[in-house]
## 1
Amino acid sequence: MLLYEKYTPYTLNGIIGNSEAVNQVRKFSEDAQKGKSKPILIYGPSGVGKTAAARAVAYTNGFGLIELNASDYRDAETLRKKLLPAVTSRGLFNKTSLILFDEIDELSGKFDKGAENIILQILAKARQPIVFTATDYWDMRISFLRNKVEKAYFKPLATREIMDYIKKIAAKEGKEIEDKTLLEIAQRSNGDLRGALNDLEFAFDSAQGIMDCIGTRNRKLEVFNVLDRILSTNSFDAAKKAFGESDIDFEMLMNWIDENIPNRYAPKRELRNAYDTLALGSRFYEKAGRMNYWSLLRYASVMLSAGVSVAGEGHSRYVAPYSFPARIKYMSATKKSREKTGSIAKALSEHMHYSRKYIITEFMPVLKLIVGKEVEKQGKDAVISQLENGLGLEKEEVNMLLPQG
Ligand SMILES: Nc1ncnc2c1ncn2[C@@H]1O[C@H](COP(=O)(O)OP(=O)(O)OP(=O)(O)O)[C@@H](O)[C@H]1O
Ligand SMILES: [Mg+2]
């Protein structure tokens, strides 16, 4: 379970910050208990507790929870089906259910007035408590709600609030993280507590050594920063600048972006465009290296940064936490043996006049079989000395070729 899931608050008292707005929600909750609540719209940036607050109202009052999200807003039919139990459940179980329209500004209202109408009907008729959440109160797609709901603004949390909170969590988890790092995480989060918790979790991992291959923790924060500015800004300039100013290795960044596009982009079209652009960028990158034509890097870097950024069409969606590129993990886990393989291939290529790549992919597997057979025939020591003397291999290299076990 992810850290932010583990520590998700189940009551309004557990929601950090935004005391005024949380009090509004508290009032809503009390009214709902009496069966006379006016629908409320909780809006504000990502990761500040909007959805958590709405759910907390249901949990603390013992209400059922009917939760709708972006994928339910595609068309009227999907929405109607999902809402059916909301309208009938009271009759069946005599239990109040809170209806939560999460991220209502994802409504495709422009193309399908039907969904909008259903929501208006529910607002007019339903007696259940209703909560909406959205990022932007002024989004045109939800203008039809404006005079029908109370509104509560959850603003970005203060660095101090985040710092205190993640410090507590780190202590609860029994992890020692330096204050300096905690502060950096808090500052970097821009008031997004979920983001901060994800970074904190990564800092935990780093304590366990995963960071080895990219250096310090700060290094990783730097990577996250660049990723944010590429995957979350939808801004050509900001993304390009972030990429240009960072001194993180080109290929490394490419791996991080590759790995994390699906953690921020959800719609298929965005995913396709982002990967298209990334692929094109990486072709420029390879060409630049192969032809020694380094000015091509210009295009590669614009594609990877600004190109990928504008492939995301709206405000960034949080799909999953940033993840560590599988490829880098693999590369670092196998670093030792890859180095050895490389040096064996080098020695052999001098004898055989084949490329190292050919030797690694085509010849080494066969060589290992041959060595195995020879060991059976002549004994280990004889084979070792032949390999050492005949091919000039080092002891450890020879070991790589011997049958294991
Ligand atoms: N104010 C807060 N107090 C305590 N925990 C919080 C707060 N804000 C966020 N969190 C943590 O972050 C997680 C995500 O919060 P939540 O889902 O409520 O964000 P949100 O505001 O709905 O964001 P989004 O707009 O991305 O949906 C929660 O499960 C919780 O662990
Ligand atoms: Mg939410």
## 2
Amino acid sequence: MLSPISSRSAIPRRGRGRWAAFALGTLVALGTSAASQAAEPVRPELTPKLQGLLQKEMIQIEQAMQEIYSAMLQGRHAVVAEKGQSIHDSFILEQSLTDEDRQDLKAAVPQELLQMDAYLHELSASLAEAGQAQDTARQVEVYGRMTETCVACHSAYVTDRFEGLQDADIPTGWGMAPSTQDNDSEG
Ligand code: HEC
């Protein structure tokens, strides 16, 4: 059940993900060693507080995604823009963390997870823009990329909870920004 994600070794993206925001320094320090870490469940590595915050954030993101889906199908562009933005602005983790929590988090999560989080963060901004631009085709495309990112992260790091994703055959590019894939030179 080795996930394709474990073999990705990419340069950290510039995007500010909820986790990436305070972990980027560490990524630079860790270099490629973090990139070659095998994908395994992260939840056991998190403190109860971090886990609670993360769960809360995930539930909010899922709700927003559902509302976006419905709005997108019906051409309610303003809702797409607003909810896309709300995903982008959801910095629950960042807002509620003490310095110590931050250290805990940095120690716990691998680089690929942070990259996926950063990519989701970027995509949510693109979705908000597509909403503002009333560009339905683009909304549908970005929404698909976001869904891939949810599944990619869950199937790599949350299989202890989402067992049905354990053996999911996830295409290599899912959850990764196109530019990071281009940089992927190590098998
Ligand atoms: C970078 C990794 C990552 C990405 C990307 C990600 N998730 Fe999650 N998600 C997690 C982790 C880790 C958990 C497990 C949290 C826990 O149980 O402690 C989780 C749990 C969840 C849960 C269960 C929450 C609960 O406790 O009831 C939902 C729902 C969810 N994610 C939705 C989403 C959606 C929707 C997306 C995409 C828009 C997404 N996630 C993207 C890492 C991610």
